[in-house]
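pasting for ref. prot 1 ->
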Amino acid sequence: MVAHMKTTIEIADALLERARKAAQTEGTTLRSLVEEGLRSTLERRETRSGYVWPDLSVDGRGVDPEVEEGGWSRLRDLAYEGRGG
């Protein structure tokens, strides 16, 4: 047996009118249409995986020894080297 709970929600007038028309066109109830939409949305959100960064490594040799111990200031100097910076 499936339990049902009554609740009240506020829906924008235009959206509610579209939903009522869609339910009527499809020969279903507004309740069924709302439940279908909620199920679909919740399923999509529950199965959504987080973003996975692609492997952007270039040659796998690690940090260049020239900048390994230099910190951000050394990286900045190298980035602007020969560019008037």
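and prot 2 ->
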Amino acid sequence: MTQLNKKSQTTAVLQYLLTGHSLTCKEASDKFGCTRLPARIAAYKKEGYKIADKWEEGVTRFGTPTRYKIYRIVK
């Protein structure tokens, strides 16, 4: 997907979450060009959306352990 402007990113990310998908920072960057997902999430919460986050553990492409958050809308 091509780089979206900030308003389009904000709308696209929210619509994606509202359809039941979860989202990580890496996925937001890859799918929507959104490099500041936590800022978008904070804005959605301020607007009244209930969004849960959960820490997950994984490995990087270099094989080192890492942690990342997964965000999803709470229904």
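The first strand starts at residue 51 and ends at 59.
Strands lie at 51-59, 65-73.
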